[in-house]
Amino acid sequence: MIKNIHWARIVIAGFLVEAAIFAVFIPVFVLLGEQPGIYTAVLASFAMAFLFGMWVGRRIESRFVLHGMLVGVAATLVYIGLSFAQPEPWQYIVAHGLKIVGGALGARVAEGRKRKATAQRETAAAELLKE
Q: How many CA atoms lie within 13 A of 119 on its CB side?
């Protein structure tokens, strides 16, 4: 089971999720203040994990949802490491959960796209064989 997991892509995606969240959070925090910054971080947690879950899902062949969830877990672990595991507002706990859900959904979307593309190729090949 473990040998079919693309750990390098998961770890890279986890770091990129956190970098992207900070890239959105910092300007909002500076311009609008702490409360809008916190809620922006929560929304960005889901969105960035979704996008990078899709990115990981583009290069894999199986276990899409697991890969996406691991992207969210990796991003959460990166954040915990950066914050030295300090106590967090409850919204950040929710954000960590949303990273896992977002990563899973993003990878699931990638799976659906991959299956659709494969089906279209197979249909096109069948049409060519009929001729």
A: 6
HSE-up of residue 32 (Cα within 13 Å, Cβ side): 12
How does pLDDT run across 42-67, given as a tens digit for each residue?
A: 999 999 999 999 999 998 989 999 99
- The burial of 77, by beta-carbon neighbours within 10 Å (0-12 exposed, 13-18 middle, 19 or more buried), is given as middle
Mean pLDDT for 123-130 is 81
- Report the alpha-carbon distance of residue 39 to residue 92 in Å, rounded: 9
Contacts for 75-81: CB closer than 8 Å, 24+ residues apart = 75/13, 75/14, 75/15, 75/17, 75/18, 75/21, 75/45, 75/48, 75/49, 75/99, 75/103, 76/14, 76/100, 77/14, 78/14, 78/15, 78/17, 78/18, 79/18
Which run of H or of E encompasses 41?
helix 34-57
Q: What is the pLDDT of residues 72-108, one digit of tens each?
A: 999 999 999 999 888 888 999 999 999 999 999 999 9
Spacing of C-alpha 49 from chain mean position: 3
